Amino acid sequence: MVINIKKNLMIFLLVMQASFVNTALAVNSADKGLSIIQEADLRDSGWNDSSSNITMVLRNHSGEESHRRLNVKNKEVFGDGDRMLTVFNEPKDVRGTALLTYSHKLDPDDQWLFLPSLKRVKRISSKNKSGPFMGSEFSFEDLSSQEIEKYTYKYIGDDDLDGELCFVIERYPVDKNSGYTFHKVWIDKQEYRTLKVDFYDRKGDLLKTLKSTNFKKHLNKYWRAEQMVMNNHQNGKSTELIWSNFRFNEGLKDSDLSKNSLKRAR
Fold first, then answer.
1. C-alpha to C-alpha distance for 5 and 22, rounded to whole angstroms
2. What is the pLDDT of residues 167-221, one digit of tens each?
3. Looking at the 3D structure of the chain, how many domains does it have?
4. Which CATH number covers residue 59?
5. pLDDT of 107-128, one tens digit each?
C-alpha cells in the first residue's frame, strides 16, 4: 500500500512538473512572438505618410493575365491604425474605383468602396471582409494595416528562407469575423521585414501564400517590397503587385483620406 501511494505520488508530481514546463514554454513562445512583432513595428514607425504606384497582375489557373494600374496613399495615425486610399486608374472599366480603409487597433476596421458606375459609396461589412478585392487574390481583410493588437502571437522557431535567416511566428486574429484561423509569418532576423505569410482558412487548411521580394530602403530607414505575389493554393490563381515611385512625407491631410475624398480620388 505504501509503495503504491509513493508510486502514485511520484506520477502525480511528474505530471504536474510536465504541465508547469509546458505552460512556461507556451508563455515564453507567446512573449517572444509578441516581442518580435513589436520590434518590427517599431522599426517601421514614424514615416508619417506615403504614396506609391502599383501594377496589379491577375493570373488565372491557366496562367492568363490581366493588368490593372493603381495608386495608393497611406497615412499613419498615432494611437490607432493607419489609413489607406487605393484608387484604380486603368483599365477604363474600373477607372475611378476607390477603396478607403481605416484600420483600428481594437475595433473592427472601417472600409468604404466607391463604384463610379453606380456613383455611390458602399460600406464593406465587417462580416464580408474575407471576400476578394476587385477579383484579386487579396481579400479586403488583407488590405488593412496589420496592427499589433489585432492578433495574439506564438514564436514557433527559426528558418532559412531563400538564404535569409528568419523568425517564424504564428499570429491568431482576435476578430471573430476574420477569414483566417491563423497566419504563419517569416520575419528576417536582420531587418525585421515580413518576407512570407501563409494564410490558413477557417477550416485550418492552407489557403494562400504571400511572398514579398525586391526590398528597397527609403529615407535610410524604411524597407518596402517592390514585388508581392499572393498565390491561392486552392484555386490555382495568383495576384502580383509591382510597386514603384514611393514618396514619403508629402503632407497628406486627414481630408485627403476621407469618405468625401473617395468620389474625387484620381
1. 26
2. 999 999 998 889 999 999 999 999 999 999 999 999 999 999 999 999 999 999 9
3. 1
4. 2.50.20.10
5. 888 999 998 888 888 898 878 7
Quick check: is 235 in a domain?
A: yes
Q: Distance (Å, rounded) from C-alpha 245 to C-alpha 57? A: 17
3-class SS letters over the chain = CHHHHHHHHHHHHHHHHHHHHHHHHHHHHHHHHHHHHHHHHHHCCCCCEEEEEEEEEEECCCCCEEEEEEEEEEECCCCCCCEEEEEEEECHHHCCCEEEEECCCCCCCEEEEEECCCCEEEECCHHHCCCECCCCCCECHHHCCCCHHHEEEEEEEEEEECCEEEEEEEEEECCCCCCCCEEEEEEECCCCCEEEEEEECCCCCEEEEEEEEEEEEECCCEEEEEEEEEEECCCCCEEEEEEEEEEECCCCCHHHHCHHHHCCCC
Alpha-carbon distances, residue 257 vs 144, 146, 198 (angstroms): 14, 18, 30
Q: Is residue 93 part of a domain?
A: no
Q: Is residue 228 part of a domain?
A: yes
Range of the domain at 192: 43-70+132-248
On whether residue 8 sits in a domain, the answer given is no
